[in-house]
Specification:
665 residues; alpha+beta; Rossmann fold; 8-stranded mixed beta sheet; 7-stranded antiparallel beta sheet; 35% strand
């Protein structure tokens, strides 16, 4: 399963596949909220953990069709009653003023404007389950539109504004519900999946009708501009081991379905029709995986699609919106930064005039752009750019906290390949000053998830806390990282722990030579694939004095057989049933006899992405070899931790572990 998003989540611990978005919520997961009373660098010596993990994170803005307003979902996390929480904020574009628009204790998400901009629909659990609510922009309270017996996962407005489509699941039959209540709650894996259901609801009278009869798991649904047809990405029930979702066009007039040409694998999605409905775009992998990367144009009338950015950009396309029938505005990752490009439907790509590092955006018909910006030393905020102008900050969610900036640099790996990395150095605080005046600095390598994830120029609590405790922190985008070329992305296929590991070590050697790093005080840390690399490294070298592995992978063969969905790993390795030697060769457990590095292992007990057995195998192997180690298990936690106390505890343990074995003083 894709793991890259976890680095984003972990960075902020309220996170950019093994993508996306470690401890905390998903992606990108929370970032960093200000704490009242902390307004300057001088307020504290180092960044307190609770402060680093308390945050407001604005999500993708949504501009109203008339261009007058924008709604922004904002997630707040931290230690306090009612947290985490997600609410909607309203930006008035002409006056550049922003205010909180919703405030239910259950939170709100997935806002969508009506076509006439007079109503806002969103999901909320305020009535006990996830339902659609409507707000009249002229005033009044939110009114519940749907009364689905099960949670609604997503919805879309009809282009005429008269109705909505929503996706949910059937209610369990009374006989099955009673059986479960009586503790006959076994799960037959091939029968445990339930199909998605699509309903159409009238705004005027709330009359509801089910459409789309076949049993599917529906990944995406979008209207074509005519209001008479839908595009859907659907998977059969039960799902096969190697999913291959279909792209279908559904006619609401006669309830007929047409299967359209699609990539034939699961690494594609985010279908977006052009304004005239003649074409649609989606992001997809260049071959059968490992992630959606290039922009594809589907000519719906001809039922064929083509990759339009492989040659013109050869970079990861992340968000996009049509600005006319033949032109899109797209967010493209270029190494550590994310920039806007205009992309024609023939693939021609040109940089947009707005020069900024953007995390999410929307664009109005007149060219006004509302976007979210963050950086190494700036917490995320909302910005507004008028046509032809540069951005102006219009929000102040996050109060100032002491942050360390990072320097982006490049170096040559063992084979001459250019690798990009970021380096944090301790700030001018009391703890950091002691380290800075020493002979040289201890260094901790922090490895991102994926391997198709990447570090970007955004706030990272993980890196900030280590840097402000006196450590230099090295964040490399080693081969296999997203944000670079397709060849770079796929260059560690069947080679985890090979040349990617050598890239990391080459970067460490470069920093020892050029940045006053103490070669005798090296540490390594990471989550998911980063945790794997922290485990792998201690079996390959004794240069590291301490290691912290979060939700890693010790045994790639047993990982494949127990994780929830193995299509991502299949692309990299095939299966252990045919390639067991290859899986074993690249598994840390094969070399544990070489390990001597003290290792802290962090694991969520409910992690289905990198299951608990991976950390248990590592722990047992290290103990048999008398290596100092600790395994800390967190109840209820999936691959990305959700509970603030668990997040705080993890960071405290990590910092204490590094101080014990490689003190910065």
């Amino acid at each position: 399963m894709s793991r890259f998003y976890l680095i984003v989540v972990l960075s902020i611990f309220a996170y950019a596949s093994h993508g996306a978005p470690g401890p905390a919520a998903e992606p990108p997961g929370p970032a960093a909220m200000g704490i009242s009373g902390l307004t300057s660098r001088e307020a504290v010596d180092t960044l307190p953990i609770e402060t680093a993990l308390s945050s407001y994170t604005p999500g993708a803005p949504l501009i109203s069709p008339d261009g007058a307003k924008a709604i922004i979902p904002v997630r707040q996390v931290g230690k306090g009653a009612g947290l985490p929480a997600s609410h909607l904020w309203l930006l008035d574009i002409p006056t550049k003023t922003i205010r909180q628009f919703t405030s239910s204790p259950k939170g709100e998400s997935s806002p969508k404007w009506s076509p006439d901009s007079k109503k806002l629909a969103f999901l909320s659990g305020r009535s006990g389950s996830s339902q659609i609510f409507l707000m009249d922009m002229a005033g009044g309270e939110a009114l519940q539109l749907t009364e689905s017996p099960t949670d609604i996962s997503s919805f879309e407005w009809n282009p005429d504004g008269a109705s909505l489509l929503f996706i949910t699941h059937d209610k369990l039959p009374d006989s099955i519900k009673k059986r479960q209540d009586d503790k006959f709650d076994e799960k037959v894996m091939s029968q445990s999946e339930h199909p998605s259901r699509v309903y159409r609801i009238s705004i005027a009278d709330k009359s509801t009708k089910r459409i789309l009869a076949p049993d599917y798991d529906i990944d995406e649904l979008t209207w074509l501009p005519s209001g008479k047809e839908l595009l859907l990405v659907v998977s059969p029930i039960p799902s096969p081991e190697l999913p291959s979702p279909k792209l279908i066009k559904f006619n609401l007039t006669d309830s007929t379905s047409t299967t359209l040409a699609s990539p034939g694998h699961s690494f594609y999605g985010n279908i977006l029709p052009s304004p005239d409905g003649a074409t649609a775009v989606f992001v997809g992998a260049r071959d059968s995986g490992p992630m959606a990367f290039d922009l594809f144009l589907h000519k719906l009338t001809e039922n064929k699609f083509e990759n339009i950015t492989a040659k013109s950009l050869d970079r990861h396309i992340q968000r996009y919106k049509f600005i006319n029938n033949h032109t899109l505005l797209a967010l493209v990752q270029m190494g550590f930064t994310k920039n806007l490009y205009q992309i024609q439907d023939n693939g021609t790509a040109t940089p947009h005039a707005l020069k900024d590092n953007i995390q999410a955006f929307d664009v109005a018909n007149d060219g006004t752009i509302v976007y979210v910006k963050s950086s190494f030393d700036q917490l995320p905020e909302v910005y507004l750019a008028k046509p032809g102008g540069q951005g102006e900050k219009v929000s102040s969610f996050n109060k100032a906290i002491p942050l360390v900036s990072a320097r982006i640099f490049t170096y040559k790996s063992f084979d001459g390949k250019t690798i990009e990395g970021a380096l944090y150095k301790p700030s001018n605080t009391t703890a950091a000053t002691t380290a800075a005046t020493a002979k040289s600095l201890p260094l901790i390598a922090f490895i991102h998830g994926g391997p198709t994830g990447s570090f970007t120029d955004t706030y990272s609590a993980w890196a900030q806390l280590l840097a402000q405790n006196g450590y230099a922190v090295f964040c490399p985008n080693i081969r296999g990282s997203g944000g670079y070329s397709w060849d770079f992305l796929t260059s560690n296929r069947k080679d985890w722990g090979g040349n990617d590991y050598k890239d990391m070590m080459a970067g460490i050697d470069y920093l020892i030579k050029n940045e006053n790093i103490d070669s005798a005080r090296l540490g390594i840390s990471g989550w998911s694939y980063g945790g794997y690399m922290a485990e792998w490294a201690i079996t390959q070298t004794r240069r590291f004095k301490a290691s912290v592995s979060g939700a890693g992978m010790a045994n790639l063969a047993s990982e494949f057989g127990t994780e929830s969905g193995a299509a991502y790993d299949y692309w990299f390795w095939g299966t252990p049933y045919e390639n067991l030697d290859l899986f074993y060769k690249h598994s840390p457990i094969a070399y544990l006899k070489n390990a001597k590095t003290p290792t802290l292992i962090i694991q969520g007990e409910e992690d289905a992405t990198d299951p608990i057995g991976q950390s248990q195998e590592l722990y047992r192997g290290l103990r048999y070899n008398n290596v100092p180690c600790e395994l800390v298990l967190y109840p209820r936690e999936p691959h990305g931790f959700r509970e603030i106390n668990h997040n705080i505890d993890f960071y405290r343990r990590m910092i204490a572990w590094f101080k014990k074995y490689m003190s910065p003083n």
